[in-house]
Design brief:
With 490 residues, the protein is an alpha/beta fold. It has 3 domains: 154 residues, P-loop containing nucleotide triphosphate hydrolases (Rossmann fold), CATH 3.40.50; 181 residues, Rossmann fold; 71 residues, no CATH class. Helix content is 36%, strand content 15%. The strands form 5 sheets. The chain has a 7-stranded parallel beta sheet with strand order 3-4-2-5-6-1-7. A 7-stranded mixed beta sheet has the order 12-13-11-14-15-8-20, with helices on both faces. Helix 8 packs antiparallel against helix 15. The radius of gyration is 25 Å and the shape is elongated.
C-alpha cells in the first residue's frame, strides 16, 4: 500500500503503544487524514500474521465507504450489516455495523479490532471489549473528546495535527467568512451522547425558522463568496433546511435537501447527483456531519450553532479534502461557531477523559501555544494582545461584520487589487455593458459596489472577454439585486 508519511508514522506510534503494553490505543487522526487506508494497512498486517480482523462502523454509509476502500486495496472481507449481499463469515476480515453486532446472539470470531468514529461509544462495544479482553482494539477518531473514552481506551496517539496537514499540502486551504448569525440567546441546552451539551435542537430550529432575514442573507452571501462551488449546508432543523433549499431555488440556484428519514436508495441518488454536479447545494440538518466523503465539495454553509467542539470539527472537516482543481474551500459561518470555538485546524486532542475530573471538551484539547511579544511601549514581555501599560496589538484573527454580508475572518491579510487589476476589472465591466447595450454608468456603479469608490481616476483597459472573477461578480450582483427587489415588494 502507498501510505503517506503521516499514515506510516501513525502505524509506528500504534505499534510502539502496543509494545509498551497498551491494548486499547486511540488514534487521533484529523478529518481527511486517510483513516480508512491506515486501517486497511493495519488489517493487512494482522492478516499476514494469520489473524482475523474486524472493522466496526457506526452507520451504514460508513460501511459502504469502507468496502470501496478495502476492495481497492485487495483485502478479503465479508460484511456484517443486515442482509448484505457481501455477507461471508468465512472471510478473515469482517466489516460490521455496530447496530448489527448488537443484534447478533453470537459474537464474531476475530483477533484484532478497529473501531471507526470511536468518539461515539456504544454500550454493546463495551460488552465486546470486556468479552475480548485479550484482543487489541484500536479506536479511530478525529475528535476523541467524548466523556469517559479514557475508561475504554488506554492511550492517545496523535501522529499529526490538522494545521500540519494543511501546511504540508495534504488538506485544502480554507477561507472563513463570518458576520450576522442566528441569535442563540435564551435557547436552552441538552446533553449529548458524547457527554457535552448543545443547544436544544427544537428551540434552535424554531429560532432559525422565524429568522427569515437570516435565510436571505445566507443566499446572498453564497452568491458572493461561494458561487458555482459544490456546496453542503447545515441547518438547525430539517424544516429550516427545506426552507433554505426553496430560497435558493427561487433564484434559479439548483439545490436539494437530504435527511435520515429518506429511503436509502433516494439518499444514494442524491449523493451521486451532487457528486456529478447535477445540482450545486446539498442541504441537511445533521446527516452529512460524520463520514460524508465528497472531495469535490469546496463550500460549506454553516447555519447550525453548536456548543460542541466535536460537532464543530466534524462539520468543518467535510471541506478539507483535496481534489483536482480545488485550490481552496470556503466556510460561510452564519452560526457564530468560528467565534465560539476558534479555527478548526487549531483544535487538537490532547488527552482522553477518564472520569477523574469534571468533564469538559475544552479540557481534552491542546491549547495553541501563546506567542511571547515585547511591548513596543514599555518592553515588558507579554503573551496576550494587551499590555499592563495600556498598549494593545491589533488582532490578526478577528471577525468583522456589517450585519448583512459575511466578511473574511482574518488569519492573513485580505486580497488586495493592484491599480492595473482594477483597470482591467473596470474594462471588463465596460465590455459587458457594451455587449448588453447598457450605459457606462452601469459599469461605474458595479465598480463602486466592488471597491467602495467610483472609478473617477481609473483608465479602463480594453478587453475582449470576461474573467471568471468578473463573471461571478456580475452574477452575484444580478441575483442580489433580484433578491433585494423581491424583499422590497414583500
Amino acid at each position: 500500500m502507498n501510505l503517506r508519511p503521516h499514515q506510516e508514522h501513525a502505524i509506528d506510534l500504534l505499534r510502539d503503544s502496543l509494545r509498551r503494553g497498551k491494548r486499547r490505543p486511540m488514534l487521533a487522526a484529523p478529518c481527511s487524514f486517510g483513516k480508512t487506508i491506515t486501517a486497511a494497512a493495519l488489517l493487512k498486517s494482522a492478516l499476514d500474521k494469520g489473524k482475523r480482523g474486524i472493522f466496526i462502523c457506526d452507520r451504514i454509509k460508513l460501511v459502504s465507504q469502507t468496502l470501496k476502500a478495502f476492495d481497492k486495496q485487495g483485502l478479503p472481507f465479508g460484511v456484517m450489516q443486515g442482509n448484505h449481499e457481501l455477507t461471508d463469515p468465512r472471510q478473515p476480515i469482517q466489516v460490521a455495523s455496530i447496530q448489527t453486532l448488537s443484534r447478533r446472539r453470537t459474537m464474531p470470531d476475530f483477533d484484532f479490532a478497529i473501531v471507526d468514529e470511536a468518539h461515539t461509544h456504544y454500550k454493546h462495544l463495551t460488552t465486546m471489549m470486556e468479552a475480548y479482553n485479550n484482543v487489541v482494539f484500536v479506536g479511530l477518531s478525529a475528535t476523541p473528546m467524548s466523556k469517559g473514552l479514557g475508561k475504554h481506551y488506554d492511550d492517545l496517539v496523535v501522529p499529526i495535527t490538522t494545521e500540519e496537514l494543511l501546511n504540508q499540502g495534504y488538506l485544502c486551504p480554507v477561507e472563513y467568512y463570518g458576520g450576522r448569525e442566528l441569535n442563540t440567546q435564551g435557547i436552552q441546552v441538552k446533553a449529548l451522547p458524547t457527554g457535552g451539551t448543545d443547544f436544544d435542537p427544537k428551540m434552535l430550529g424554531e429560532a432559525a425558522e422565524k429568522d427569515v432575514k437570516l435565510t436571505g442573507d445566507i443566499v446572498t452571501n453564497w452568491v458572493k463568496h461561494g458561487w458555482g462551488r459544490q456546496t453542503i449546508a447545515f441547518s438547525p432543523s430539517i424544516k429550516h433546511s427545506k426552507g433554505l433549499v426553496e430560497e435558493f431555488k427561487k433564484f434559479g440556484i439548483p439545490a436539494a435537501h437530504i435527511d435520515g428519514y429518506m429511503d436509502e436508495a433516494d439518499r444514494q441518488r442524491l449523493y451521486a447527483a451532487h457528486d456529478a454536479g447535477e445540482f450545486l447545494i446539498l442541504s441537511c440538518s445533521k446527516l452529512l456531519n460524520t463520514g460524508y466523503d465528497a472531495p469535490s465539495v469546496s463550500c460549506l454553509i454553516d447555519c447550525r450553532p453548536t456548543k460542541s467542539k466535536i460537532v464543530f470539527v466534524q462539520t468543518a472537516g467535510r471541506i478539507f479534502r483535496t481534489a483536482p482543481g480545488k485550490e481552496k474551500a470556503i466556510y460561510l459561518d452564519h452560526s457564530g461557531n468560528i467565534q465560539r470555538h476558534g479555527f478548526p485546524e487549531f483544535i487538537t486532542p490532547s488527552e482522553l477523559d477518564d472520569g477523574s475530573k469534571r468533564f469538559s471538551e475544552d479540557r481534552q484539547v491542546r491549547k495553541k501555544e501563546k506567542k511571547v511579544n515585547s511591548c513596543p511601549k514599555c518592553q515588558l514581555k507579554m503573551t496576550g494582545p494587551k499590555c499592563v501599560c495600556g498598549f494593545e496589538f491589533k488582532q490578526t484573527e478577528e471577525m468583522y461584520t456589517d450585519g448583512t454580508e459575511l466578511v473574511k475572518l482574518q488569519k492573513k491579510s485580505n486580497k488586495t487589487y493592484s491599480p492595473e487589476r482594477k483597470a482591467e476589472f473596470f474594462g471588463e465591466l465596460l465590455h459587458y455593458a457594451e455587449t448588453r447595450g447598457y450605459k457606462r454608468g452601469w459599469a461605474s456603479v458595479h465598480y463602486r459596489d466592488k471597491f467602495g469608490v467610483w472609478p473617477n481616476k481609473i483608465e479602463p483597459v480594453k478587453v475582449s472577454g470576461l474573467s471568471e472573477e468578473v463573471t461571478n461578480w456580475i452574477k452575484h450582483s444580478n441575483i442580489k439585486a433580484r433578491y433585494l427587489a423581491m424583499k422590497k415588494v414583500a
